[in-house]
Amino acid sequence: MADASNHGSARATDPFGKEIIISPAESLLDIDPANTPPGELRQSFSRLLLLYDLGGRIHAKADEGDILKMMLDAVSEMLNVERAFVAVLAAGRLQPRTAHNIDLTGAPADWPVSSTMLRRVLDDGVSLLAIDALHDAQFGEAASVDLHNIRSVMCCPLGRRHKPKGLIYVDNRFHAGAFRKPDLQFLDALSHYAYLALLSAEEQRQVAAERELADARIESLREEIAAKHEIIGRSVPVVACYELACRAARGDVPVLICGETGTGKEVFARLIHARSPRAGGPFVAVNLAGLPATLVESELFGHEKGAFTGAERKRIGRFELASGGTLFLDEVLDTPLDVQAKLLRVLEQRTFERLGSNEPVRADVRVICACNRSPEAAVADGRFREDLFYRVNGIRIDVPPLRERPDDAAVLARHFLQECGPGKAFEEEALACLANHPWPGNVRQLRNLVEALNVLVDGPLVRVGDLPPWVRQREALPRRPGTFEPLAAVVERAEEAHFRRAMELAEGNSEKAIRLLGVSRAKFFERKKRYRL
User: Fold this and answer.
1) Which of 90, 109, 190, 321 is the most buried if burial means most Cβ atoms within 10 Å?
2) Sign of the alpha-carbon dihedral angle for 227, 229, 230, 235
3) Which letter does DSSP use for residue 533 in this model?
4) What is the pLDDT of residues 94-113, one digit of tens each?
5) Mind listing the pLDDT tens digit for each residue in 53-76?
């Protein structure tokens, strides 16, 4: 563990892999607590307590200057120090960070210390102690030692061997033997704390810089969104979707936009088209859920006259209409299985045939698909071909529902009200109420409500009382102390929740919901209209 060097010094390795050299020769392993004087044991115990305390205090500091000053204060308090400093390597050169009773102006070679010792510590990654530097075989012949009358010196690297981050240096120019082995051990242990704290401070600076850059990027995208009015919203999820859509617009890779009904999937599809090289071409949208299964193939690919009963003339399909541009297939999971095979072929081979024709037609079109259900579940259930899913799922954009970005509700409400015309605004409590509503119909539902409020409200301000009962929920709007909710509002809220639950259990079937509720048809449809079920 310890060996004698050619200079008559003792060497040992600390737990961090750094070599400790003590001059003159004396091994660190020769310490015997049983034979150590009580005064030294008390001093060692005090240093141990200080190290425990510094371990917590140093790592609680994020500022590098505070960390290093704290360290030098501890060194000055516990050791017989005349001068001390900490220097950190930057671009391969030592730069002073904090100092005690020493002038470190100029280049490191001009500092009033032993440059030989500094180079040794940095080059070899060792901790050095010279009990009497003037008579030390290693340093006594150095001109700087004699010039500055340096007697006792200690120097430890900050960091691991062969890759130090800097060093800590202490000396005493007036007394030989001012430092001993326990002093070097204390300084070396302290250097490890400082090194880890410096790394932590550096990581915190990097994280802060990256966060600042990310925040600036998000704010820039928000301003871009607001200026373009393509996407309305300032929440982080919407900004992330916007940025992904802008990136997706660069090429012709298929895009799959997933999200609940009313979240604005087609708005993102139009954004991708408008930002793409195909912006000069047509944008053709088709909702596959709204077409009879027997007409989907004809709608997409067209047909020749007489191709089937009722085909009285030739029809151009959506793929041809979108030539040179973008085809948006909304609710793509509702594509009939027999048509899915042909759709896969178009995406892979870029050609198709009209119904009733064997003549191939070139499909110069970018396809963007959308769905309001889980495509993975549709594949697992056998309702959607797995190979087609992999083909359309080139770039995936998941548009979050409005309930997951409540702050956007106020932004959207203001925007929709402005679109209706100038002269009206929302009071803050009304906006807070809108922000706390779950909006099962998402942005589309909010837009319909705002357009209705614009017609129904006569004054210039839309207040909480102007909102329909299904929005004015007790949990949606914190009430002022001393207010009491009318019984009618409580009953109406409970009734709405009961009607909604019945519709869920009936899977949207009105007749089944009427039987579950046990109400008249007239009352049911009146409530269905009132609660916008």
Assistant:
1) 190
2) positive
3) -
4) 989 889 888 898 888 888 88
5) 767 766 666 577 777 887 788 788
Burial, 486: exposed, middle or buried (Cβ in 10 Å; 0-12, 13-18, 19+)?
A: exposed
Q: Which of 394, 451, 409 is nearest to 272 (CA)?
A: 394
The stretches in the chain having pLDDT less than 70 are 1-33, 36, 39-40, 54, 57-62, 133-149, 161, 212-230, 306-307, 309-312, 473-486, 488-489, 532
Give the chain's largest Cα–Cα span. Answer: 113
**DSSP summary character for residue 347:** H
Q: Long-range contact list for 268-271, CB < 8 A, 24+ apart?
A: 268/231, 268/241, 268/242, 268/397, 268/399, 269/326, 269/328, 269/368, 269/370, 270/230, 270/328, 271/230, 271/231, 271/242, 271/245, 271/246
pLDDT for the residue numbered 327: 94
Residue 62 near residue 50, CB atoms below 8 Å: no
Question: 376 and 256 in contact (C-beta within 8 Å)?
Answer: no
Q: For strands 10-13 and 3-4, give the pairing.
A: antiparallel
Handedness of CA 92, 98, 100, 106 (dihedral sign): positive
* Spatial CB neighbours of 121, under 8 Å, sequence gap ≥ 6: 127, 128, 155, 156, 157, 164, 167
Give the other-Cβ count within 10 Å of 376's Cβ: 13
Distances (CA, A) of 72 to 34, 87, 213, 485: 31, 12, 34, 65
Pairing of the two strands 255-258 and 366-371: parallel
pLDDT in the model for residue 449: 93
What CA–CA distance (Å, rounded) separates 305 from 396? 38
Instruction: Give the span between the Cα atoms of 330 and 334, in whole angstroms.
Output: 9
Q: Pinpoint the alpha helices (H) of 332-425.
A: 337-349, 375-380, 386-392, 407-420
CB-CB contact of 356 with 306 (8 Å): yes
Which 3 state secondary structure label does DSSP give 166? strand
Which residue intervals of 405-486 are DSSP H helices?
407-420, 428-436, 442-456
Cα angle 117, 190, 184; round to 5: 50
pLDDT at 287: 92
Tokens matching residue 437:
């509503």
Distance linking the first and last C-alpha atoms of the chain: 81
The tokens for 335 are 């594509």
Alpha-carbon span 79 to 69, nearest angstrom? 15
